[in-house]
Design brief:
The protein is mostly beta strands. It is built from three helices and 22 strands. The longest helix has 16 residues. The termini are far apart.
């Protein structure tokens, strides 16, 4: 090294030592999401759906033991309080139809003809001997004089002789006024039944329409479940969950979406991939990185929240995810949904 270079380096070192500190830009705080503000009775929540009656939001989710269909309420979507379960014992028909079951799974809620319809599943884990039942009530408010759930009995049942599994119901009325129930878990995928509007049960004995599946080799797993159909912007949008839930922080659940002009399909992802071939567009992504807290987001429900009084309508997706900081507890999650310029939804979670 020459003396000139040595003096130059020494000068730079001296300048660096005596130079005033250059101010660094302040770190921009992360934007607070709705999920980051949720508080109260968030655990355990599995397979949630959401509805609003008056100024109160209601979440219903899977229940076990003597708490059959868990309930939670909130005045603002942020502060949640657990309530009494819908039922404390399975109806007699369900105990007879599905021996060994002790829970009501994956409810769905809708307001139809002046009453709330709560569809629910009865099954045993890993079996397609399953049934979907229906209960109705004129209100969701337990303090109301006319509150009370009436069980309406069996809606759909599957057995080992069927190629589908009658759990995870979701109800929708299409733009022509027809009533439908989508359902399904594993086996040959998601099915769609047309319903009698008066009874809320299948209209006839026709075979259901297949709207989503994940082809697999014979005997291999085909994890697709938890359908939910939304009507928006001239399309029907089908959400389904792929891969595996119920494994705590090892859950690989995630949610995909496809859209169709017709409620019976075909449902296609943004890239044109058919949900009947295991395609679709990822909507809720599994958090698999080690630093991520919430894993396996899925079994999503939807709320189109009508603003009223000059307030704009808003869409929300409700789902469960497994909290790494709480031993993998299934936890309530809610995210606003923004519709992009391309017409596709994006969850702000």
């Amino acid at each position: 090294m020459t003396r000139q270079i040595m003096f130059t380096l020494a000068g730079l070192a001296l300048f660096a030592t005596n130079a005033p500190a250059i101010a660094q830009p302040a770190a921009v705080p992360a934007k607070a999401t709705l999920n980051s503000r949720l508080t109260g009775d968030l655990v355990p929540t599995h397979d949630p759906v959401i509805a609003r009656e008056g100024d109160t939001y209601h979440v219903f989710s899977t229940g076990h033991g003597k708490r059959l269909i868990e309930t939670r309420t909130s005045p603002d979507l942020i502060h949640w309080t657990a309530g009494d379960p819908i039922f404390t014992a399975l109806p007699a028909w369900a105990r007879e139809a599905i021996p060994g079951s002790d829970g009501m799974w994956a409810p769905d809620i809708a307001h139809v003809n002046g009453r709330y319809r709560l569809y629910y599943s009865v099954s045993t884990f890993g079996s397609n001997r399953s049934a979907i039942g229906l209960a109705t009530s004129p209100t969701l408010d337990p303090k109301a004089k006319n509150y009370g759930w009436r069980d309406e009995g069996l809606v759909v049942m599957s057995t080992k002789d069927d190629d589908y599994n009658a759990i995870d119901p979701n109800f929708i009325i299409d733009r022509e006024g027809r009533h439908w129930l989508s359902l399904g878990s594993f086996w040959t995928g998601i099915k769609l039944f047309e319903l009698d509007p008066k009874t809320g049960k299948p209209k006839d004995a026709k075979a259901p329409v297949s709207i989503a599946r994940r082809p697999a080799p014979a005997g291999g797993p085909a994890p697709v479940e938890a359908p939910f159909i939304i009507d928006h912007g001239g399309y029907y949008w089908l959400m389904v969950s792929y891969d595996y839930c119920c494994k705590g922080v090892n859950s690989t659940y995630y949610t995909v979406m496809g859209r169709s002009k017709d409620i019976t399909g075909p449902y296609l992802g943004k890239d044109g991939s058919p949900l009947m071939e295991g395609g679709g567009t990822i909507f809720l992504r599994a958090d698999l990185q080690e630093q991520q807290r919430f894993r396996g987001p899925g079994h999503a429900g939807w709320l189109h929240d009508k603003g009223g009084n000059g307030q704009e309508d808003k869409d929300y997706v409700v789902y469960h995810a497994y909290d790494k900081q709480a031993n993998g507890a299934p936890t309530l999650r809610i995210a606003p949904v923004r519709w992009g310029a391309d017409g596709w939804p994006q969850a702000e979670y």
